Amino acid sequence: MARKKIIAGNWKMNMTPTQAVELCATLKDLVKNDDVDVVYCVPAIDIVPVVAAVKGSNVKVGAENFYIEDKGAFTGEISAPMLIDAGVEYIIIGHSERRDIFGENDILINAKVKKAFAAGLKPILCCGESLALRKAGTYKEWISRQIKWDLSGITADQVKNLVIAYEPIWAIGTGETATAEQAQEVCKLIRDYIAELYDADTAAAVRIQYGGSMNAGNAAELLAMPDIDGGLIGGASLKADFGKIVNYNK
Ligand code: PEP
Predict the structure, then answer these.
(1) Which residues of the chain, if any, have pLDDT below 50?
(2) For the chain: N or C, fewer Cβ within 10 A?
(3) Are 212 and 178 in contact (CB under 8 A)?
(4) Which residues lie below 8 Å from residue 239, measured CB to CB, with a gap of 6+?
(5) Which protein residue's CA is at the shortest distance from atom 8 of ligand 1?
(6) 3-class DSSP state for residue 78?
(7) Of the candidates 88, 100, 7, 105, the residue with the CA atom closest to the CA atom of residue 46
């Protein structure tokens, strides 16, 4: 069965609740495409107004972060049951900004993937190499290791419902996009590695996105690649151009 493309915006720490509702209104008619799953991953404070703003539309809502406990003395954190109660379906886990700025390691990321599945959230698990690793030529080993650690103890049935985002750090927010061939190479590598860790059916089912300066101009070429099943989009998800990415095939 063909994999449905998934285009997800990662709003990061942008958009006040008022701006978030305005952006939803701007994008409302631009992000309709039955061939594609559309997700807005938004800051915690925007979740409730964004869920209300996209109600009845094709847009699903994701969160950008959560903690692995259900409740308790974890000042500043937000839990999976809170997200689900608010109407969240997807959760970004392991974004390079969480890894690099907030010190999240693969042990915590693996615990988050487990918790997300147990709670009924769909993880968008990010992986990707730094410029130094790309230049050193060791990026394939690095990414395989991230996948192995982050999916430790995760079942094949769970992986079939997982989204993996390949995001080379050197392409995030830099305006420098991986070429379609570079992105395809790593997305295929990830799929082949899933086949090795699990089986061919699981590898055929898992959806693998590319992320890193994807925009209206380069989306069609990237999304035409056989192992690229969508995009995780930062900067370009905050403007009307996001609609052009969602409609890359029209
Ligand atoms: C991201 O942070 O997930 C991302 C891909 O950002 P950008 O599109 O701005 O490079």
Answers:
(1) none
(2) N
(3) yes
(4) none
(5) 234
(6) coil
(7) 88
Structure tokens at 234: 């930062």
- Residue 210 makes CB contacts below 8 A (sequence gap 6+) with 165, 166, 167, 178, 183, 187, 222, 225, 228, 230, 231, 232
Q: Which atom of ligand 1 is nearest to the CA of 215?
A: 8
One-letter identity of residue 106: D
- The secondary structure element, H or E, covering residue 21 is helix 17-27
Q: Give the tens place of pLDDT for each residue, 193-214.
A: 999 999 999 999 999 999 999 9
Q: If you ran DSSP here, which 8-state letter would residue 103 be given?
A: -
Supply the DSSP symbol for 236.
G
Show the domain range for 143: 5-246
3-state secondary structure of 207: strand
Choose the catalytic residue: 64, 95, 104, 129. 95
175-185 confidence digits (pLDDT tens):
888 999 999 99
What's the CA-to-centroid distance between 238 and ligand 1, angstroms? 11
Tokens of 249: 């095939």
Q: Which CATH number belongs to the domain containing residue 169 in this structure?
A: 3.20.20.70
Pocket of ligand 1 contains residue 237 by CB under 6 Å: no
Tally of domains within the chain: 1
Residue identified by tokens 């995760």 is 154
